[in-house]
Amino acid sequence: MFTQLFRWLRNARCAKADSSPKVKASVIEMLQFRRADRCVAESLSAAPNEVWSLLGRKGYAGEIAHPDAAARLVGEQQRCIESDTDGSRKLSVLLDAGQNGLLVGDRSVP
Fold first, then answer.
1. Are the C-beta atoms of residues 25 and 55 closer than 8 Å to each other?
2. Among residues of the chain, what percentage have pLDDT more than 90?
3. Residue 101, by phi and psi: left (phi above 0), alpha (psi -120 to 50) or beta?
4. Higher-confidence position of 21 and 106
5. 110 in a domain, yes or no?
6. Domain contains 82
7. The whole model's pTM is what?
8. Is residue 105 domain-resident?
9. Contacting residues for 100 by C-beta, under 8 A, at least 6 apart
10. What's the rounded mean pLDDT across residues 91-104?
11. Got the DSSP string for 35-80?
12. DSSP state at residue 21
């Protein structure tokens, strides 16, 4: 049990130090899956905008426990819906947004 906890903490530190947004987002996803909410919040606090965008596109807005982080991910998800030109990717984000409580269908989405 403690070995896993230390491994999660080490991964969170690695995510902060790594320069790749994809690596940072992947580590945050793993921590979120393990419900390591404090580590997720710490990793997100130092995350660049690209990481927030990746996580927002993947529908993590409804899973993050920290209210400020969840609100920012909702905004990222909304930006993705409004700006994405790929129909299948936009549909996927819309479906995730509906599951996370974002109002979908109240207005025309470009």
1. yes
2. 2
3. left
4. 21
5. no
6. yes
7. 0.70
8. no
9. 59, 61, 62, 63, 74, 77
10. 65
11. T-HHHHHHHHHT--HHHHHHHHHTTGGGT-SSHHHHHHHHHHHHHH
12. H
